[in-house]
Write a structure and sequence with these properties.
This protein is an all-beta fold. About 0% of the residues lie in helices and about 45% in strands. Strand 20 and strand 21 (about 270-280) form a beta hairpin. The chain is globular and about 85 Å long.
């Protein structure tokens, strides 16, 4: 998203003088602004604030104006409405943020916001917006009842100036960007219903479909070249289809633009290379891996011509030719012991290009109704992993807002700002890691640091002999009072590990300890909310104990 949104107010009825109190919600969007241009008149409403506004001549068609933008495959519908009928003046002017599609899966049937005599809600299909008044403008056709599966979702792609969406149960929908008054409507040409969409070499490609001859979970079908509404197989348009028969299971997704392939089709237990060859075949399909696929369609992450994904036996990276493991001996066993195998389809993923990180959210066995409550983080530069304990409905990327120096006051003083003044967080238009939280609101990972725990590998002296640890020196940049270290111990490899009480780092720079045993490991804890960086390890001072 971006800092200001321009709303086109089309001419239609008589000019109105609008004077009233502007209330803009929700407050979690604090800091952005809504910009409405009407001739030479400009309205700026700071989000999260209430203030009196006065406009000159204001042209409007109905009590509701709207705008839709695309943010990484998930359209966001901003609905603007008055709480009373439009007259020469009116009361509250409200904004409601409604994310459409998969991100709002768990909020179906709940009231999102209210205003006056109106109620904004999401029905069981997640796409119907209803108000307590008859007038309604919505980019989705309000007369249509969408039938998205409870465990399904919507697949969005941009094809030129069109946004094309599919939920597998309903006809593929299309929305024309920039067309005032337009709604999502069925795509022409009699396309199939599809779980996944992609654009490959200017063909609209549908994967795992319901076709004219029935359910085809292993079928790949594509439109005509440069013609997303041409679906009848033809040598002229090059529209056609291919069934990827075999024991690979259902098609789980498609990723375009790989280093060594035009696209990849990944099934439950197989992977196929998709290459454009031109007429008469159109596309050639080569089975590359006949055993490995993915149980989690949401685990696919495409970066720089590579695809990172979760396989049935661990995490991998695929270049269009072969897969290479990235989780062996590091995270695979831990993940499969922890994840709830009944909710693989709730896994979502997103890359952080700036920090060279990939995030996978997943539900563990204690999660509520399969809502992801942990995140695995992979550094593709170093090959290292870590884990976050945080509840999210879905991960995604957004664009940061832009702020002036004056607008930064709402975030604190120059000494208390979370990010420095030269941070790209304040410039706007920068991709940032975001998520829908447990309250179905979009949130950004820009708050205070969570508490961190770093546990070392186990060490011992050959023989083995007992070691007495007296000092532990943490190598981390943080205030001494926010660093604690505990020592885990056991005598035999078959024993369970028990940790002694942790101690705080003193003014000298070490955590005093007095723990002795044959096998030792160390756990460093950093306080929640404390600023820290560059935690690289620990040094210990120990002595070898004699035998008795």
């Amino acid at each position: 998203m971006f800092g200001r949104i321009s709303i086109a107010c089309p001419a239609g009825r008589q000019n109105l003088v609008v004077v009233g109190t502007a209330t803009v919600t929700p407050p979690y969007m604090s800091g952005a602004s809504i910009s409405c241009n009407v001739g030479s008149v400009r309205l700026i409403i700071p989000i999260g604030k209430s203030e009196s506004i006065s406009l000159g001549l204001f042209s409007i068609v109905s009590p509701i104006a709207y705008i839709s933008i695309l943010s990484l495959g998930h359209p966001l519908l901003y609905v603007f409405t008055s709480s009373k009928s439009i007259t020469s003046s009116f009361g509250n002017f409200n904004i409601f943020l409604l994310p459409l599609g998969r991100p709002t899966q768990s909020s179906f049937g709940t009231v999102i916001a209210t205003g006056g005599n109106q109620v904004l809600s999401i029905d069981g299909d997640g796409l119907i917006v209803e108000f307590g008044v008859p007038t309604i403008l919505n980019i989705f056709d309000h007369s249509v009842s969408y039938r998205t599966d409870a465990n399904g979702g919507w697949s969005f792609v941009q094809y030129g100036d069109k946004i094309i969406a599919s939920n597998y149960k309903d006809p593929i929908q299309v929305y024309n960007l920039g067309e005032i008054g337009a709604s999502f409507s069925p795509l022409g040409g009699n396309p199939p219903k599809a779980r996944w969409l992609s654009v490959v070499k200017n063909f609209l490609v549908a994967v795992n479909i319901v076709d004219e001859d029935g359910i085809s979970p292993q079928r790949v079908r594509w439109s005509g070249l440069d013609s997303p509404t041409s679906w009848t197989p033809s040598l002229v348009t090059q529209a056609d289809f291919q069934d990827l028969f075999g024991d690979g299971g259902e098609n789980q997704g498609i990723v375009a633009g790989l280093t060594q392939a035009d696209a990849m089709i990944i099934q439950e237990r197989s992977m196929w290379k998709m290459t454009y060859t031109g007429p008469p075949l159109g596309f050639q399909f080569d089975k590359l891996e006949g055993i490995r696929g993915t149980p989690a369609p949401g685990s696919l992450v495409s970066i720089g011509g590579l695809v990172y994904y979760l396989g049935e036996d661990g995490f991998y990276v695929f270049d269009g030719s072969q897969s290479s493991p990235i989780g062996n001996g590091k995270i695979n066993n831990t993940f499969f012991d922890d994840v709830d195998h009944s909710y693989f389809r709730r896994i979502s993923s997103v890359p952080d290009i700036t920090k060279k990180l990939i995030y996978w959210s997943y539900p563990d066995t204690s999660a509520t109704s399969g809502i992801p409550n942990k995140i695995l983080v992979f550094d593709w530069g170093t090959g290292e992993w870590t884990r976050l304990e945080i509840e999210t409905e879905i991960l995604w990327r957004t664009l940061s807002f832009g702020y002036t120096l004056e607008e930064l006051d709402q975030f604190g003083t120059i000494d208390t700002l979370v990010n420095s003044l030269d941070s790209r967080q304040w410039t706007g238009g920068i991709y940032q890691l975001s998520a829908f939280n447990a309250n179905h609101k979009t949130a950004h990972f820009t708050g205070s640091p969570l508490g961190a725990t770093i546990t070392s590998q186990e060490i011992t002296i050959p023989d083995p002999k007992r070691m007495l640890v007296v000092q532990v020196w943490p190598r981390v940049r943080a205030a001494a009072g926010n660093i604690r270290v505990g020592v885990g111990r056991r005598t035999l490899p078959s024993d369970s590990v028990s940790f002694a009480a942790s101690t705080t780092m003193n003014s000298v720079g070490f955590c005093p300890q007095r723990v002795t045993d044959n096998y030792l490991r160390f756990r460093m804890s950093l306080s929640a909310g404390a600023a820290w960086s560059q935690a690289t390890g620990i040094d210990i001072v120990s002595v070898v104990e004699g035998n008795r």
